[in-house]
Amino acid sequence: MTELIQKAFMKGKRTFTLPGDGTVHCTYGYGYGRSAYQFTVDLSKLDVNPREDRFFATSMLVGAVILGIPSIGCLVGAILSDCSSDAFIMFSVFSALLSPFMLMCIFGFLKQSYHLLVFANPINQQDNVVLFQGKPDPVRCEQFVTTLRTGIATAHEAVPQLITSFAAEIRELMKLRDEGVLSEIEFQTAKTQVIKGETIRQR
């Protein structure tokens, strides 16, 4: 059995287990009293080549800088002022008003920014296997990813070619939806037809 435990600041804890039976068990713990999301996926349903999802919350970082400069300036002004002077009171008040908003932007940046590695499940995107890139360290993460990809490749060889065909059809439908050719309702209807083994007409 192979296991990977990942923790990311403000993003919770994720555990992935490969028991060796052709499945991967996933647990996403979000913290803050929220219950963990647990699911199991057949490796044959996952794409062997993961994609990287990366987002950098630039607006939050810019906000932290914009608010941080006057906040720190006021704090320095308060430190350098006479404790009994009006300037000390004014600098202290402004620093106290600006600091919470600066901290909110910093936490927002940390919470919203991410770098993920996604093993997609075209049949059910809710069961995508999503890893934090490089956690808990790059070497252990890469070792698990290699083991997972090997397991997926082996599972693909063991299932009928029809399953691979279904996955390819659903990926094509997802592409059409993302390009605006299909609406969400049309996509869900077509996906259901593919899963049921019905023939999808070319659009």
Give an overview in words.
With 203 residues, the chain is of the alpha+beta class. It has 3 domains: 2-53 and 120-159; 58-112; 160-203, no CATH class. The protein is built from 5 helices and 7 strands. It has helices spanning 58-80, 86-112, 138-158, 161-178, 184-195; strands at 2-8, 12-18, 23-29, 37-42, 51-55, 114-119, 129-132. The strands form 2 sheets. Strands 1-2-3-4 form a 4-stranded antiparallel beta sheet, with helices on one face. The protein has a 3-stranded antiparallel beta sheet with strand order 5-6-7. β2 and β3 form a beta hairpin. α1 (58-80) runs antiparallel to α2. The longest helix has 27 residues, at 86-112. The radius of gyration is 24 Å and the shape is elongated.
Oligomer: single chain
Please provide the ordered H/E string of secondary-structure elements.
Answer: EEEEEHHEEHHH
Tell me the strand percentage band.
Answer: 15-25%
Regions with little confidence, pLDDT below 50 for 5+ residues: 198-203
Keywords:
single chain, 203 residues, alpha+beta, 3 domains, four-stranded antiparallel sheet, three-stranded antiparallel sheet, 5 helices, 21% strand, elongated
Q: Topology of this structure?
A:
Blueprint (H helix, E strand, L loop, with lengths): L1 E7 L3 E7 L4 E7 L7 E6 L8 E5 L2 H23 L5 H27 L1 E6 L9 E4 L5 H21 L2 H18 L5 H12 L8
Antiparallel strand pairs: 1-2, 2-3, 3-4, 5-6, 6-7
Helix pairs in contact: 1-2, 4-5
Describe the structure concisely.
The chain is 50% helix and 21% strand. It contains 5 helices and 7 strands. The protein has helices at residues 58-80, 86-112, 138-158, 161-178, 184-195; strands at 2-8, 12-18, 23-29, 37-42, 51-55, 114-119, 129-132.
